[in-house]
Amino acid sequence: MLKGQFAHRGLFGQILLLLFLIFSGMLLFTGIGIGLAAYIHEINPQEVLATFEHLHEGGGREIFKLVQGFNTLGMYLIPALVAAYLVSERPERMIGTDYFPKPGWLILIALLLAAYSMGALSDLLYRLSAALPWPASMTENLASMQEIMLGTYANILNIQGPLDFVQVLLVMAVLPAIAEETLFRGFIQPLLRRHLNPHLAILITSAVFALLHQQYLAFLSIFVLGCLLGYLREWSDSIWPSTILHFLNNASIVVLVYFFDYDYQNAFNDEQGINWAESLVLLAILLFSILLLSRLFRKNPRLD
């Protein structure tokens, strides 16, 4: 049996194991996605890869959805599950999939409130990052990357009908929430917590989480989101609250664009002023929901 074979290895060895699994999984599953896309669309693999270079210019949506779905599985979910199986005698306990905190209905309401109000904090942090005195050369690069990002989002969120909506929701919200939480809050954070204090484990995990998103102006907002997800994991001793909040955060933009014609690009428009009254109300709701979740988890600790 391979279960727990790396349980007594040092932290460095376990991290090397994880990196090997991530690299192998990314190559294997992305390769499968590229191969399927090439077969389905009757093009060669080089043409599949070329669509990603011009995704921000339009086109290639169907290829992106397929390849990105496999990439998410291979880079995040599968490596985390395999690594947890190899470094723990109880992998489901390490990841936190074997327990949902109570009372479930009240926790879900608090998570919905947090997801609804979190956009205000993300917007303020993004504006703060954009307002920093970056060097001129770096400002040009950041502006170029933002333009490419907005073009890519505009292409992906150009949803054509209910089936396309479900596919985009799956690729942009469901899979990332499950896969990324399994890796970051399900494996990396508990692994670091064995050797570090919980706050430092959360900070390091959140920094890696933000860096891997490669959205430099949004680094601060993604880092803060990662910290919140990390504390939900720490307080609840379960992966489910952070996964649900991660899903709601990602799904909100897809739902708003498809059902309410939300112009998400205005969120990145520096010329649009801040509605401080609305922002302060939303920040108060966010603070209330976080405090409520903290109290609920501490009041109803896991007993095993």
Descriptive report:
With 304 residues, this protein is mainly α. The chain has two domains: 1-89, no CATH class; 99-304, no CATH class. Helix content is 76%, strand content 0%. Helix 1 (11-41) packs across helix 2 and helix 9 (219-236) packs parallel to helix 11. It starts with 10 loop residues before the first helix and ends in a 5-residue tail after the last helix.
- The gyration radius over C-alpha positions equals 20 Å
Task: Indicate the proportion of strand residues.
Answer: under 5%
Number of strands: 0
Order of helices and strands: HHHHHHHHHHH
Query: Helix amount, in percent?
Result: over 70%
Q: Can you count the helices? A: 11
Q: Given the helix and strand composition, which structural class is it?
A: mainly alpha
Shape, per Cα inertia axes: globular
Largest sheet: none
| Average pLDDT reading | 91
Q: How many domain units? A: 2
Oligomeric state of shown chains:
single chain
Record keyword descriptors for this entry.
304 residues; mainly alpha; 2 domains; 76% helix
Summarize the structure.
With 304 residues, the chain is an all-alpha fold. It contains 11 helices and no strands.
Question: What does the secondary structure layout of this molecule look like, with pairings?
Answer:
Layout: H1 11-41, H2 45-53, H3 61-87, H4 91-95, H5 104-131, H6 136-156, H7 162-193, H8 198-212, H9 219-236, H10 240-260, H11 276-299
Helix pairs in contact: 1-2, 1-3, 3-7, 5-9, 5-10, 5-11, 7-8, 7-10, 8-9, 9-10, 9-11
